[in-house]
Design brief:
By secondary structure, the protein is α/β, with parallel strands linked by helices. The protein has one domain: 3-Layer(aba) Sandwich (Glutaredoxin), CATH 3.40.30.10. Helices cover 20% and strands 22% of the residues. It contains 3 helices and 9 strands; from the N terminus they run E-E-E-E-E-H-E-H-E-E-E-H. The strands form 2 sheets. The protein has a 6-stranded mixed beta sheet. A 3-stranded antiparallel beta sheet has the order 1-3-4, with no helix packed on it. The radius of gyration is 16 Å and the shape is globular.
Length: 197
């Protein structure tokens, strides 16, 4: 069973209405700043943003907490992965660049199970469509499905959803980098190494 994807991020302005799956649920509340779980965040490192041209709205140098109910699985909580690099890949099954990049993301996830976690977030699609996509690409990591209007769009400035978009978090939970568009395996490896420094 899937319920909503919940993010706790920096404060966001109101977002334009986006098409959504018809549902009786109320939309998620607007994102809000997360309390800093550690008194010693990494003050000297700022995220570098590739390709996204500053489109991502995430607090700098503060650990971020995300809570997500995932497709056919237990809750995903970003803080449970402290000590690992976390790649969050926002995608859609109909998106051609996402489909081109998907084998790269799967191979990357399988190559680094000890120190790296990957989670996918699909936006506004049905459970069965995502199950079919997961089966086709043999995706081994959790996939959350976003349904409401305010959660995933809130990570993007200018109310723009761009597929695919990947966000990388350091082992301390702070943002390391983000980019929009497909990436090569070498690009994923470079960002992993950077986040582990």
């Amino acid at each position: 069973m899937i319920s909503r994807v919940k993010f706790v991020l920096g404060a966001a302005s109101s977002l334009a209405a986006l098409p959504s799956v018809a549902r009786a649920d109320e939309p998620d509340p607007p994102p809000s700043a997360a309390p800093t779980p550690s008194p010693q965040p990494t003050p000297s490192r700022k995220p570098h943003v590739h390709g996204a041209n500053g489109l991502i709205r995430i607090p700098e140098n503060r650990p971020v907490e995300w809570k997500m109910e995932v497709l056919d699985g237990p809750e995903f909580r970003l803080s449970a992965y402290r000590g690992k690099v976390v790649f969050v890949n926002v995608f859609a099954t109909w998106c051609a660049p996402c489909r081109e990049e998907q084998p790269v993301v799967v191979a990357f996830a399988r190559a680094h199970p000890e120190d790296t976690a990957v989670i996918g977030i699909d936006v506004y699609e049905t459970d069965n469509d995502v199950r079919a996509y997961r089966k086709k690409f043999e995706i081994p990591y959790p996939i959350a499905i976003h349904r409401s209007r305010m959660t995933v769009p809130a990570i993007f400035k200018n109310d723009s959803l761009i597929y695919p978009t990947t966000l990388v978090f350091r082992p301390d939970g702070t943002l390391s980098c983000a980019w929009s568009g497909g990436r090569s395996r070498a690009g994923f490896e470079t960002e992993r190494e950077y986040a582990l420094r």
